[in-house]
Amino acid sequence: MRVLFWVQHLLGIGHARRASLIAEALVAAGAEVAVAQGGHPVASARFRGADVVQLPPLRSADAAFSALIDSAGRPAGEALWAERTERLAAMARRVRPDIVLLETFPFGRRAFRAELAPLLDGLTAGRERPLVASSLRDILVRHDAKKDAWITRHARRWCDLVLVHGDPRLLPLEASFPPAVELAERIRYTGYVVPPRAAAAVPGADGTDEVVVSVGGGAVGAGVLRAAVAARPLSRMAADARWRLLLGPDLADAERAALMAAAHPGLVPDLVVEPARPDFPELLTRCRLSVSQAGYNTVMDVIAAGCRAVLVPFAHGRETEQTDRATLLADRGHVRVTAEAGLTPERLAAAIDAALSGPPPPPLDLATDGAEATARILLEAAGRRRGVSDDPASGL
Fold first, then answer.
1. 161, 240, 284, 296 — which has fewest CB within 10 A?
2. Alpha-carbon span 268 to 72, nearest angstrom
3. Which residue has the higher pLDDT, 199 or 125?
4. d(CA 374, CA 384)
5. Share of the chain above pLDDT 90, in %
């Protein structure tokens, strides 16, 4: 089976990391995977075993998603869109996919319909139509009725399957996207996409009894990191711990330099500031407390580790996804939440103390084999399609 996987992250790196795990699971299941990477390369998203084609990268200009800009910070112009469209079309001609997998589109990434609409219309018009699926995280940003109608219409137009990387026992898609009921025959829940766990390290390793503060890629996490530095001496229950701040690769250089300076050994003992680490999930299994935003990947790492946690969901502009996820888990007693708006060291310290003084989080039984399940669902569906189309009696 040949798979063409279109991947486009705009601000954080979570989409790319999740897509990488899915691509690797497809490769492990025997598929030939070609990835059209539309954002800048992410070190932690390696897409091992896949053929990665880098499109001219685009990203969001700011946290408000006000515009798309290229790698030099220039607004996306007609020439860039034309180049991306042609590269994607050439890739499709070369791959001749049995399966086309779209990260988020058409449920998001609507600005990219300029390159995707001609691709999808061309691929789905032929006799050997590939299976087309959309790859979604558990929660969508809430839209108005007009956008919801556009999404539903185009999902029906192009998508054979809508793969939701979540567990309906925790949250069904219609909770954040009510028109999902109109697409029920296309929706498949895969479970959460969680990386495999490494063996636990020996006692005393990094992370043991620490407060671990993380912000994913870091593009919108500077406020959480600054508040954490100032909150440390204010906490009644964590001031004695080592605090480990992990700086994402997209944190602004000025913010990075200021935080590194704050961690001078002679200035603040037991404050470690370092780049984000690939063993972050293992740090959480040993920590006293995690402080983070509420992105998909980080929250799944927190839940899998079973650690106490404070979430500060990213909620700039119209962003609702992280707040919805954090609120859901807080209502079930798994985390403490404090809002990003008006975040102060005092409020963060109070949330940390509340999390440490309350009961430990209860176990949460969730399906976490989402990458493998995605590969299985796609390959089985494409196999059925191929079997029907190869049958002379089918008329297809």
1. 240
2. 37
3. 125
4. 16
5. 79
200 domain residue, yes or no: no
Task: State whether 184 and 244 are in the same domain.
Answer: no
d(CA 50, CA 46) in angstroms, rounded, equals 9
Q: Is the peptide bond prior to 106 cis by the omega test (within 30 degrees of 0)? A: yes
The average pLDDT across 136-150 equals 92
Pair 117, 176 in one domain: yes
Number of domains into which the chain is organized: 2
**Token pair of 85 as six digits:** 């469209």
Check which CATH number belongs to the domain holding 158 and give it: 3.40.50.2000
Q: Is the distance from CB of 131 to CB of 168 less than 8 angstroms? A: no
Q: Token pair 């079997």 is at which residue?
A: 387
Residue 152 sits in the same domain as residue 171 = yes
Q: Residue 201 falls within a domain, yes or no?
A: no
Rounded to 5 degrees, what angle do the CA atoms 340, 66, 213 make? 30
In the prediction, which pLDDT does 300 show?
92
Q: What are the strands of the beta sheet with 187-189, ordered from one edge?
A: 51-54, 32-37, 2-7, 99-103, 131-137, 161-165, 187-189
In this prediction, residues 154-162 reach a mean pLDDT of: 97
- Residues 248-305 have pLDDT tens digits of 998 999 999 999 888 766 666 799 999 999 899 999 999 999 999 999 999 999 998 9
Query: 86 CB contacts (<8 Å, ≥6 apart)?
Result: none
Residues 247 and 151 in one domain: no
